[in-house]
């Protein structure tokens, strides 16, 4: 059961919650399902089966498993390096999730309105079907509207700068969240495969709970019908675009 849940944990994760909806929206809604399943059956599933089979056969990691063939030894190291880079990439996203998790304990969510120091004059706020630009009704210089959650993420969470020449100082709150994310990873794997097998009881099933909750929340939001219609009426011209 732990092995089966580990496989599910490798297949279902953050990408299914935030990456797939974005890619589907960008690539024609339901039309994205066709290339997605083509890649899934022709590339994803065979490689997943190959990785699982080699792992069981050699009882080793990717770097050691490919020692059976000197020609593909570099492929094993490339797989290990890729896993390392992906771990760093995903752990940053987990740090963002932890940041929002702690920020959500406030009585009033900071990204629910504008007028804060991180908001600009282009901030749009909807209140009772009325549009306010930075809390001022019908402001004329609101030419490039930005919503408060977007500015909260860019200007407060990330402290995003305009160029690499001015990256600024690290955000202590976000740095602590990243440290906590790595500590959680360390606690999950510190005892080896035995402890990670117990962790998957939570990590493999929790994404389904999140997805189910987001579906309920999504279909109850204003404009949900338009989003569902966009997904069910695909833009078939997007299939021809390979970018």
UniProtKB/TrEMBL annotation:
<keyword id="KW-0472">Membrane</keyword>
<keyword id="KW-0479">Metal-binding</keyword>
<dbReference type="GO" id="GO:0005283">
    <property type="term" value="F:amino acid:sodium symporter activity"/>
</dbReference>
<keyword id="KW-0812">Transmembrane</keyword>
<keyword id="KW-0325">Glycoprotein</keyword>
<dbReference type="GO" id="GO:0015179">
    <property type="term" value="F:L-amino acid transmembrane transporter activity"/>
</dbReference>
<feature type="transmembrane region" description="Helical">
    <location>
        <begin position="29"/>
        <end position="50"/>
    </location>
</feature>
<dbReference type="GO" id="GO:0005886">
    <property type="term" value="C:plasma membrane"/>
</dbReference>
<protein>
    <recommendedName>
        <fullName>Transporter</fullName>
    </recommendedName>
</protein>
<comment type="similarity">
    <text>Belongs to the sodium:neurotransmitter symporter (SNF) (TC 2.A.22) family.</text>
</comment>
<keyword id="KW-0813">Transport</keyword>
<dbReference type="InterPro" id="IPR037272">
    <property type="entry name" value="SNS_sf"/>
</dbReference>
<feature type="transmembrane region" description="Helical">
    <location>
        <begin position="172"/>
        <end position="190"/>
    </location>
</feature>
<keyword id="KW-1133">Transmembrane helix</keyword>
<feature type="binding site">
    <location>
        <position position="16"/>
    </location>
    <ligand>
        <name>Na(+)</name>
    </ligand>
</feature>
<dbReference type="GO" id="GO:0046872">
    <property type="term" value="F:metal ion binding"/>
</dbReference>
<keyword id="KW-0915">Sodium</keyword>
<dbReference type="GO" id="GO:0089718">
    <property type="term" value="P:amino acid import across plasma membrane"/>
</dbReference>
<feature type="transmembrane region" description="Helical">
    <location>
        <begin position="199"/>
        <end position="216"/>
    </location>
</feature>
<feature type="binding site">
    <location>
        <position position="9"/>
    </location>
    <ligand>
        <name>Na(+)</name>
    </ligand>
</feature>
<feature type="transmembrane region" description="Helical">
    <location>
        <begin position="75"/>
        <end position="103"/>
    </location>
</feature>
<dbReference type="Pfam" id="PF00209">
    <property type="entry name" value="SNF"/>
</dbReference>
<dbReference type="InterPro" id="IPR000175">
    <property type="entry name" value="Na/ntran_symport"/>
</dbReference>
């Amino acid at each position: 059961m732990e092995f089966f849940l580990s496989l599910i944990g490798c297949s279902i994760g953050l990408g299914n919650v935030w990456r797939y909806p974005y890619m589907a929206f960008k690539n024609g809604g339901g039309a994205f399902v066709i290339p997605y399943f083509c890649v899934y059956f022709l590339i994803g599933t065979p490689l997943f089966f190959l990785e699982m089979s080699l792992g069981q056969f050699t009882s080793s990691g990717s770097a050691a498993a490919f020692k059976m063939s000197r020609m593909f030894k570099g492929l094993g190291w490339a797989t290990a390096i890729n896993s390392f880079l992906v771990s760093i990439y995903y752990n940053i996203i987990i740090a963002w999730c932890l940041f929002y998790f702690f920020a959500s304990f406030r009585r009033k969510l900071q990204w629910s309105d504008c007028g804060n120091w991180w908001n600009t004059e282009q901030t749009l706020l909807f209140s009772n079907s009325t549009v306010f630009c930075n809390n001022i009704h019908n402001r004329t210089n609101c030419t490039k509207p930005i919503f408060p959650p977007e500015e909260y993420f860019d200007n407060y969470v990330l402290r995003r700068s305009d160029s690499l020449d001015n990256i600024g100082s690290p955000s202590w709150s976000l740095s602590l969240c990243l440290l906590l994310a790595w500590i959680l990873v360390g606690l999950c794997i510190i005892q080896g495969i035995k402890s990670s097998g117990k962790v998957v009881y939570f990590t493999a099933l929790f994404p389904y709970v999140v997805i189910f909750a987001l579906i309920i929340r999504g279909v109850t939001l204003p404009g949900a019908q338009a989003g569902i219609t966009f997904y069910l009426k695909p833009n078939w011209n997007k299939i021809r675009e390979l970018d």
